[in-house]
Specification:
This protein is of the alpha/beta class. The protein has 8 helices and 9 strands.
């Protein structure tokens, strides 16, 4: 008899997100992960991030799932960006959480303030309508005309209904635009 493992829901929904919209104590902003990955592919070396800093980054990036930690490769460096208010974890929240849990070093590429600013798509979108997000999605679609599908992660607070947010965005997009995006809503950020 062969046992069939139940796949992790996070593993099933995860993909190469190109855009992430993050709501944290520093405000709400959207950044282009793909662009950040291109910037850090310039030959720079990753840095070990001290555990106390990792802990603070995880307090700001609360959208991680403890059940998913064993499914990721903690040796792949994340991306940490310098912002005016401090560091922000652009990429690698589950890797950071796993290294903290396991007591190992979290390695991350560092973006300076100028590099981080170049990855910001929308600043401080808290309290604005989804039309701002739609405008930015259209810019991304225009910048990536050959991409068949672009995954867009949207982090929302506990007061927001994920289905209403997705419906509001999709209502404002044309059929061909909707066909090219996959909205992934991460709740309770």
């Amino acid at each position: 008899m062969t046992a069939i493992a139940t796949p992790c829901p996070r593993c099933l929904e995860r993909s190469e997100h190109q855009i992430c919209i993050l709501h944290c104590d520093l405000g709400r902003f959207a950044f282009n992960i793909r662009k950040a990955r291109v910037i850090v592919s310039d030959g720079r070396l990753p840095h070990a991030i001290p555990p106390e800093v990792v802990k603070k980054l995880l307090e700001l990036n609360t959208d991680w799932d403890a059940d998913h930690l064993d499914h990721i490769n903690p040796d792949e460096p994340g991306i940490v960006a310098q912002r005016v208010n401090g560091l922000v974890l652009f990429d690698g929240v589950h890797r950071a959480a796993r290294t903290l849990r396991d007591g190992t070093d979290f390695l991350a590429y560092m973006l300076n303030l100028r590099e981080a600013d170049s990855c910001i798509i929308v600043r401080d979108i808290a309290g604005v309508s989804t039309s701002v997000i739609v405008r930015e999605i259209r810019i991304i679609l225009g910048d990536n005309p050959d991409a068949e599908q672009i995954d867009i992660a949207i982090a929302i607070g506990p007061e927001e209904d994920p289905e209403e947010v997705k419906a509001s965005i999709r209502e404002q997009l044309a059929e061909n635009e909707n066909a090219r995006i996959k909205l992934v809503v991460n709740e309770n950020v």
